[in-house]
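This part of the workshop introduces the protein records we will be handling. An example says more than a description, so a record of this kind follows.
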Amino acid sequence: MKQTKKCILAVILILSFSCTRPRYFTNHYTGEYTGLDTLINIEGFYYFERDDSSNINYCIMFHEDGLFIYTHVGKPSDSLTNYFEGYSRYPGFCGTYYIDKDTLKTQGIINRGWMYGVFVIFKDYYISPVGELSFIREYILEDRLIGSGNLNKRNFRPDNYLNPGTFFPLDIKDHRCRYIKKKWFTGKK
């Protein structure tokens, strides 16, 4: 009986850590119009390819209300299009963005499970006068190990990302985000 109580307590602690609020998430989702659609095309997703053999490319889709969805991919495919159109249960990652002059600043939520928790990854993009989107940098503000590598307070811009991103139009756009009803995500009390 004593062992059962310890197991139950351990499970409760693990679950509570996996549901925590990301410490550096500050740009809350308000659902208000951002005007991004007047600067770039948001009726689809952007694909950022690396020119090395790592095959760690990524795609990002923006909504006019400050929400974005992204995932890491190999190459664009029909299954990727289906993913962004909402045929998966939940998108891989989501977060919020804001516009600062000619820079689009994102805060993506990544949940690495009970061992590493939930953290924020920041990515910045340059918006050109002709509506192209280019990757500038990526960074986190955590002071712990994340995933399989230590990304402590890294601030980097991989030189091997090809810019600008390639745009892929969509007929339907998924607008789901698993955190959209969380108080820490919306800033509501």
Observations:
- Residues 12-18, 147-153 have pLDDT under 50 and may be disordered.
- Residues 103 and 126 are 5 Å apart (CA to CA).
- DSSP finds four helices and nine strands in the chain.
- The longest strand covers residues 118-127.
